[in-house]
């Protein structure tokens, strides 16, 4: 089978690993990977960078294999270069720099290439971004600037893109449109500058933490519409849902024929009440430093986070597929900002460093950002909740949507849509068959030839960009590809 893989980041590593484990001796693949970035396997998230930028999941849960959660940790303990360091004996509940996880991905990518060669498969890397797609009755053709690939099947896994400059600041002196790599961006910022970080999610945390790590002396202001920092990851506690379960959702659908937001929150509320907590209390507005301090005090047991992350794993698909378009739109607009801190929490060491900077007065987190503009005499003016403030430097660390992929993927996605090979999802990304991750083509096109992996599928799967979800879905796609090749 001729297979084209669009994107050579972490998702491609997980896919190739899954294919090698699923395939028997009678499956043969000729694989072409289109990746225009200089470094394969790491994507944006895991390329070399400052050691203070940590993976936000414990090392014992990071892997390219959904059924072997300690795969990364076992690799780490075998590395001679880390044998005499704390990483050589790192416990499963500790955190590692993202660049270390990137080393694992690069190493395992090479191991997968060797495994493919031993099977007689070919893997060719085209070092450019794919831009055009066309289809005939028997194949899909993928073009780049200087390449042409003929494929029987295509898997799209382009990863997430850079920030989208929501305030149109491109070209303004002192504006940094992408925070990564931190090692390249942060040294260009004066040590006493007042830095405005657009975005209070994990990327914004990286910027603030990187500045503090480098000894920045000036003020740091993190700002967003909601002003919500990621939660703090509490210790993992196995938990079994008793109210918000797939069975309860199925019974409700059988009785009522639909599932509304109010119905879902009632089930969630019953789950929280049984654990001794309350949704209204947990989501009540609080200053960022108070919320951070409260979460650090609950590292041994945070029932709200435990229930939310368990529900994300166990009932996400049941709920998301039961909701209609109206419920999905309302949730994404009103409640998604409250949910993101729960399922994308930061490591406790990161939270402690941020809290110390808040307590000292150097770091401030603001909500209600309404606009940012460059000032004629230099610097920037930002409007928070009707009041104007100033900053010397702005770093864009925003995320523009649930399933955004960035400008480098846009030409190919437009070409695929124009050819009828893919259809946009109104909730983000592209329409897929959730059972297989196969992309749903427009009428008249042959189904089952294109697949998607990662953020592109979030409109149908809601939460599809985490490594664990990528691993799970890579297994599904690998099964489909191997079945078609044998």
UniProtKB/TrEMBL annotation:
It comes from the Bacteria. Residues 4-160 form the FAD-dependent urate hydroxylase HpyO/Asp monooxygenase CreE-like FAD/NAD(P)-binding domain. Pfam families: NAD_binding_9. InterPro entries: FAD/NAD-bd_sf, HpyO/CreE_NAD-binding, L-asp_N-monooxygenase_NS-form. This is FAD-dependent urate hydroxylase HpyO/Asp monooxygenase CreE-like FAD/NAD(P)-binding domain-containing protein. It comes from Streptomyces benahoarensis.
């Amino acid at each position: 089978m001729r297979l084209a893989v669009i994107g050579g980041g972490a998702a491609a590593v997980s896919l190739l690993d899954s294919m090698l484990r699923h395939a028997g001796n009678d499956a043969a693949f000729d694989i072409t990977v289109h990746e225009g970035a200089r470094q394969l396997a790491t994507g944006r998230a895991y390329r070399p960078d400052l050691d203070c930028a940590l993976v936000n999941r414990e090392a014992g849960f990071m892997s390219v294999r959904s059924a072997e959660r300690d795969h990364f940790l076992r690799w780490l303990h075998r590395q001679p270069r880390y044998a005499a360091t704390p990483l050589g004996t790192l416990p499963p509940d500790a955190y590692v720099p993202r660049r270390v996880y990137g080393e694992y991905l690069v190493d395992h990518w090479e191991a997968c290439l060797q495994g493919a060669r031993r099977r007689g498969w070919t893997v060719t890397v085209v070092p450019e971004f794919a831009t055009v797609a066309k289809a005939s009755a028997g194949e899909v053709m993928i073009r780049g600037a200087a390449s042409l690939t003929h494929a029987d099947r295509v898997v799209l896994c382009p990863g997430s893109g850079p920030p989208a400059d929501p305030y149109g600041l491109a070209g303004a002196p002192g504006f940094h449109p992408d925070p990564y790599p931190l090692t390249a961006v942060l040294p260009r910022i004066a040590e006493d500058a007042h830095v405005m970080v657009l975005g209070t999610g994990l990327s914004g945390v990286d910027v603030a933490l990187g500045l503090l790590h480098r000894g920045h002396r000036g003020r740091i202001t993190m700002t967003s519409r909601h002003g919500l920092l990621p939660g703090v990851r509490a210790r993992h506690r196995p938990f079994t849902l008793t109210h918000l379960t797939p069975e309860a959702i199925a019974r409700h659908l059988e009785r009522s024929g639909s599932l509304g937001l109010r119905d879902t929150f009632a089930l969630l509320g019953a789950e929280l009440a049984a654990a001794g907590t309350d949704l209204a209390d947990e989501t009540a507005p609080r200053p960022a430093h108070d919320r951070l301090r409260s979460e650090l005090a609950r590292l041994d047991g945070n029932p709200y986070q435990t229930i939310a992350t368990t529900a994300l794993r166990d009932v996400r698909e049941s709920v998301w597929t039961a909701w209609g378009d109206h419920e999905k739109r309302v949730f994404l607009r009103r409640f998604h900002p409250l949910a993101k801190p729960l399922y994308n929490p930061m490591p406790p060491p990161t939270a402690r460093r941020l809290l110390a900077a808040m307590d000292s007065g150097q770091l401030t987190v603001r909500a209600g950002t309404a606009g940012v503009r460059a000032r004629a005499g230099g610097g920037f003016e930002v409007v928070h909740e009707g009041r104007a403030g100033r900053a010397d430097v702005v770093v864009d660390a925003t995320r523009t949507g649930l399933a955004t992929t960035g400008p480098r993927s846009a030409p190919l996605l437009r070409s695929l849509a124009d050819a009828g090979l893919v259809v946009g999802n109104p909730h983000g990304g592209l329409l897929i068959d959730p059972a297989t991750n196969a992309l749903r083509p427009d009428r008249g096109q042959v189904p089952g030839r294109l697949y998607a992996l990662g953020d592109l599928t979030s409109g149908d799967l809601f939460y599809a960009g985490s490594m664990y979800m990528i691993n799970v879905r890579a297994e599904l796609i690998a099964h489909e590809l191997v079945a078609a090749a044998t």
